[in-house]
Fold these 2 entries.
Entry 1:
Amino acid sequence: MDEVTFKSNTVLSDVHLYTPNHRHLMVRLNSVGQPVFLSQFKLLWSRDSWTDSGTEDSGLRDVPPQEAPPAGSASPRSPPGSGHSHEGLSPQAWADTTSQEAPLDEDGDLDVVRRPRAASDLDPAEPPRDKVHPMILAQEEDDLTGDQAQESCPDSIIKIEHTMATPLEDVGKQVWRGALLLADYILFQRDLFQGRTVLELGAGTGLVSIVAATVARTVYCTDVGTDLLAMCQRNVALNSHLATAGGGVVKVKELDWLKDDLCTDPNVPFSWSEEDIADLYDHTTVLFAAEVFYDDDLTDALFNTLSRLVRRLKNACTAILSVERRFNFTLRHLDVTCEAYDHFRASLNALEKLADSRLRFMVEPVEASFPQLLIYERIRQLELWKIIAEPT
Ligand SMILES: C[S@@+](CC[C@H](N)C(=O)[O-])C[C@H]1O[C@@H](n2cnc3c(N)ncnc32)[C@H](O)[C@@H]1O
């Protein structure tokens, strides 16, 4: 197999950077030859808690988020959110989180897996080592569905296939931190989404939609690109038992922010049926979008789509958006700026001023102080925003 190379235009999500090695396994190559990995995201919560009637009864408390361990460090000895109440965690979830120890050698030192030496290193200080390549651990299998998925996937685990270090046009094939923040919010506020019809824009691997389907009735999980949507569909199948337990269904569909209309051509994969479109417009009351504000033109396209869609919906609706404020040094400014985030905030402001005789938009930040049920680094720069669209 060719060596895995990191090109200058590739990006790697922190979610995959910080996932300990044994949690992501390379399982196959996708149809365009990219290595696909399987990661497990543990829900620090038991199925019993899912059936609780509401946030007040869940035993969850409004506590500060967990401090993430530094990259490469052992997993926390104390439970995530340690020092806080962990009511709501099943004994199983508790045992699993505390048993994720880093590998140790016979003296008890950390056993660090080293990167293979670069071919360009002409003067190595140590004798050359064997090169290590990712290995395919299992060949592509048919989609796991129903009972099969249930057997291989306990209630507390979400299995997600994804790629790593993709070019910008393929970022949807990775899981981003904002998706985990939004998933946490959905689980914490599950009463708000119980039995709803939900639309996710730019769903990528589908993690948010999969979590939403544990409470919502129908989730339209949308993005663009047959490759990506196929991967997303596979993830939905891998986790189908989580959705069906709550009666939820996830429908993976194409929705391109650069197009005005939904594709209804039955020959196009992931196109819409007339029934789905009618259901979408008649029943949707919640929209989600995680980490989709990284390119100003796409941000404009997404806000246009959002404002067009809510005008077609029969009911008032709420959109919950997650965004990470990323700082970059730019030659243009000769300074550190967060242009993509600034453009997002300007778009929110513009939306609020868009009120017409039919509809008005209210925008408010959501305090990200709810507990973490998924393990990731909830950094200060991660934000949630709520847009309420209602008739004037
Ligand atoms: C950074 S990824 C976020 C993926 C996922 N929400 C997450 O947080 O893990 C941005 C997503 O926006 C999607 N996207 C980009 N342009 C789009 C367009 N024109 N229409 C629909 N989705 C688009 C990408 O395909 C990708 O899935």
Entry 2:
Amino acid sequence: MKFKIHRGTKEIGGSCVEVWTKSTRILLDFGMPLVEKDGKEFDFRKYKTTKTNELVSKGVLPDIHGLYNNSSNLIDGVIISHPHQDHYGLANFINNDVQYYLGEATHKIIELNNLFTPQEIHLKNTNYFEKEKTFKIGDISVAPYWADHSAFDAYSLLIETNGKSLFYSGDFRSHGRKAKVFYWFTHNAPQNVDYLLLEGTTISRDNKPFKTEPEIESELTNLLKRQGKINLIYTSGQNIDRITSIYKACKRTGKIFIVDVYVAKVLKELSKYAGIPYPSDDFENLKVMFPYFTSRRLKNEGNEKVLYQFKKYKITKEEISKQSDKIVMIVSFCTEIPKRSNCSGLCMRGSSRKPCKMGIVRYNTFL
Ligand SMILES: [Zn+2]
């Protein structure tokens, strides 16, 4: 077994590791970098018209034989550990004939991103794996382990071939709603691994403990009890653990929990894989708002059926304004904040509270 870390050391994101034997070559993730070489935010729009070979020569794309269009001797497989763009975001450059290996929910999330964002990553050849079910690509065997992470469907990977083994942790944590998965792993981790590639995003951070999701849920519950005005919470629409914490806090305080149509669709699709709240008769206090620009875009692109799907659970801006003291609303990238929302003027960034004119209650989205 040989391997090369093409990107992802000394930076957050852009993960990409090539593993090969004499007869098989695979890739673990193909992520978009979060920052440029000069430290500025990575903006892929400026490379949109640049040819693949130029991007390779500029170092924007890693030089990997058999991965891009017009490649001979194609790579045997690309494994996507979880649906965060810094782990799959450059996949639109990969040759259409390449085989992908990923969780089914991961694929679903990538497709939802195509529906609601400018992203256009259509994976043609997909093979779904499941936790602890080993599969083979050529003479390389891969065992996926479920991981606790802010991405819904995250895995660590044990790669084995010819008596050698490599463990790729992918992104993981131990304070989410799947913390048990992490503690299970500490007792069941593969032994005598030859190479360990470990995520280290928080290694250089302060040594303070992170709040667990149940702790955040009870902190939010106390906060919502005290608030008599609208609460806007800024979080990723795909951070299902956090959205579940907010929903539970709303339930405990008699608040109405509002998501936009994008978050509604994410919850609905992912409810097939886990018992999570989603717009339905089972979750009475969960309502859906339809932001104008997102709704218009869905309609213009022939996807108005997504809008009709949640019609029964619709709440209008007028209804929100009338009962703003009961409202808790997720603010995602497509939310339009109602005028005169009479905000609470309270902002939470991680563990520190600061006054905020926007009234956004913010919890860090990536942890
Ligand atoms: Zn991640």
